[in-house]
Amino acid sequence: MKTLKVVLLFMATSGLFFSFAHAVDGVALEKASIANGAKLYADPSLGTSGRTCNTCHIEMGKSKNMGMRDAKGFIGRKHFPKYFPMANRVMTLDQAVQFCIVNPLSGKPLAWDDSKLTDLTSYVNSIYTGNIAK
Ligand code: HEC
Fold first, then answer.
1. How far is the CA of 57 from the centre of ligand 1 (A)?
2. Rounded to the nearest whole angstrom, what is the distance from the C-alpha of residue 100 to the centroid of ligand 1?
3. Which of 57, 80, 131, 132 is the most buried (most CB within 10 A)?
4. How far, CA to CA in Å, does 90 sit from each of 60, 67, 76, 99, 118?
5. What are phi and psi of 55, to 5 degrees?
6. The pTM is what?
């Protein structure tokens, strides 16, 4: 009888656990991250220079033309980590985003686990790859 109770309890709790695991919609979270990153992309409060990412990487990073300081759009330029001439080192995509927050935007570096950094990186990556979290 006791064993049966333990088995039933286990089944009930693991059932609960797995139904929670299924309730999380990862793709929806990725889409939300990209959407929030798009807002941050045009938000001057990331820095102190009055600029946004969009000041230089114009048309939300989708332009084939150069913006301020010869900054380009991101479409089709994917391959990270890559050599980043401004910093004279190889960087991951989030390091490149962080570099542009600290330097051209004169902002404070974000913590590496800050969701703003994740979201901006999600947005920029979606332009590089054309992946809008299908
Ligand atoms: C004052 C202009 C300026 C601003 C503002 C700026 N950047 Fe940049 N960024 C540059 C320049 C110049 C480069 C190097 C040339 C290039 O790769 O387009 C660069 C390079 C990059 C790269 C690497 C491009 C590649 O494929 O090698 C990324 C990613 C990037 N910036 C993201 C951002 C993000 C995100 C923001 C906003 C937080 C931002 N930048 C703000 C000027 C700027």
1. 6
2. 6
3. 57
4. 24, 23, 19, 12, 19
5. -60, -40
6. 0.85
Domain range for residue 56? 25-129
Computed on alpha carbons and rounded to an integer, the radius of gyration of the chain in Å comes to 21
CA distance 71 to 57: 5
Q: Is residue 31 within 6 Å of ligand 1 at its C-beta?
A: no
Residue 46 lies in a domain: yes
The answer to whether 42 touches 52, Cβ cutoff 8 Å, is yes
The reply to whether 45 falls in a domain is yes
Q: Is the pLDDT of residue 134 over 50?
A: no
